[in-house]
What does this fold into?
Amino acid sequence: MRNHDLREAMSVRRMFRAVCAGLLSLGMGSLAAAQDYPARTITLIVPFAAGGPTDMVARVVGEHMSKTLGRQIVIENVVGAGGTTGTSYVMRATPDGYTIGTGNMGTHAAAVALYPGLPYDPAVDFEPIGQSASTPFVILARKDFPARDLREFVAYVKSNADKLNMAHAGVGSVSFITCGLLNSLLDAKPTLVPYNGTAPAMNALVAGQVDYMCDQIANVVPEVVDQTIKAYAIATAVRNPALPDIPTTREGGLPEFEFSAWNGLFAPKGTPKPVLDALTDALDKALSDKATRKRLREHGSDVPDGPRRGQQALATLVKNEIARWVPFLKAAAASSHARAPGLAPEPGP
It folds into this structure.
């Protein structure tokens, strides 16, 4: 081999060794960082306004998770576009476990159909941590709404939909989808009024600025008990102990409308497995804690049992929810004849 070729070969070998050493050092650094996790405060992004059901669940479980992890979990509300703004923020965060997010059927399933320009793929761009809770929906109206029960509500909305306003937490949010399905069942087309979360939507309902909405039970117990709004039915097969006097949709003559929302925790794609496992373990301990379970159930939430907990269970849930909702929503938006009222997409985030 000539001297020039020998020197070139040696240079290539040195470069190869340097690259390998760099990768090894980077890997060892990442491993050390994962082993030391958490070393500082963790930010939990809630993609809806403070005070809503997703925010409530995140704060309750986050408080107990902080104790297990030994570091504070700080809630940050990043609102907009039916929860997809905050969810996109989580997707773009550094995958080190210090920025995680909460999501639901709206952000991690329905948004795929409702936002053609969605910047993330819910089944690909996140690492699932685990499901945190699920909550049934309630059909609600302002306190002076004329109907006395669900049957009268159905008849009134059918006859007066063009004069009514329906509040929701943004296109793609669970409240938007749920009441959209209700409107479809009633063949009603009210005026849709969007808000940056169910908490501000609820404030508008209490103030009588809108006529009705659908919201998770976790967000409505105080208002229903205080009679600042009307609750017509809970969209489940059995009554909920948080509001035992409110009948189910089956009792009220609308058995087709049964719906519960779920919440889960997610990390950005590429978050190290040891970090994910630490977060999943902390979430599991929170859901097993008697005081935490009591707080969630007082708001009407259902705490997931063993088979519904953990990373794989949430990954499967997301895939199933996408398969369940996306075809229906795309078909509804594509055909004016078959469109479910209130489900047509608005411009993406």
